[in-house]
Design goal:
about 180 residues; 9 strands; four-stranded antiparallel beta sheet
């Protein structure tokens, strides 16, 4: 059997609540499929559909990548379109590039087999919702989404998540958590 997996940093409940309240206040009427509050997270690697028997090996790789990595703090500055202004697919909270996060992402990519050769700065983002393109195109003038919204997120662990579709909803389950030092 296969499981749909990804590696991410969980968000504290207070951050999830703040993000949810902001979305409700500022963007509620936009044609967007919003991420449920309990599903907010910071994705590091999407692994796709993985055979269940490979999960222990993946956990070993994640554990190796997280080994000797210190906890750190991420700063987020604004809400904006993603992945680019001219390629709008989502609305997300975007953060400042971080040496610590870039190093962790590089280590994960390397141990999980996504290594691209060089270490690149990884800009964190938290997906809040996916734009419903057909409905979005009909809105004139196009709504302004970019807004300042400053908050920080402590990263003291990373998790291996399973993504399931249950009762018409996307649900994420933590399969294993890996502490940072």
């Amino acid at each position: 059997m296969q499981k749909r997996l990804f590696v991410a940093a969980s968000l504290p409940e207070d951050v999830k609540k703040r993000l949810f309240r902001f979305v409700e206040k500022e963007y509620r009427d936009l044609p967007v499929k919003w991420v449920r509050k309990e599903n907010f997270h910071l994705t590091l690697n999407f692994l796709g559909y993985i055979p269940e028997e490979n999960i222990p090996e993946i956990c070993d790789s994640i554990r190796e990548a997280a080994e000797n990595v210190q906890s750190f703090e991420l700063e987020f500055q604004k809400m904006e379109f993603g992945p680019k202004k001219d390629a709008k697919k989502m609305i997300w909270a975007s953060g400042e590039k971080s040496e610590e996060l870039s190093e962790l992402k590089y280590r994960l990519d390397k141990t999980l087999g996504f290594h691209s050769g060089e270490k690149r700065k990884f800009r964190p983002h938290i997906t809040l919702g996916k734009i419903i393109k057909e409905k979005w195109r009909k809105i004139l003038p196009e709504p302004e989404v970019e807004k300042n919204f400053v908050f920080s997120v402590p990263v003291s662990s990373i998790e291996l998540f399973e993504s399931k579709f249950e009762k018409g909803k996307r649900v994420y389950y933590i399969l294993e958590s890996f502490s940072l030092h």
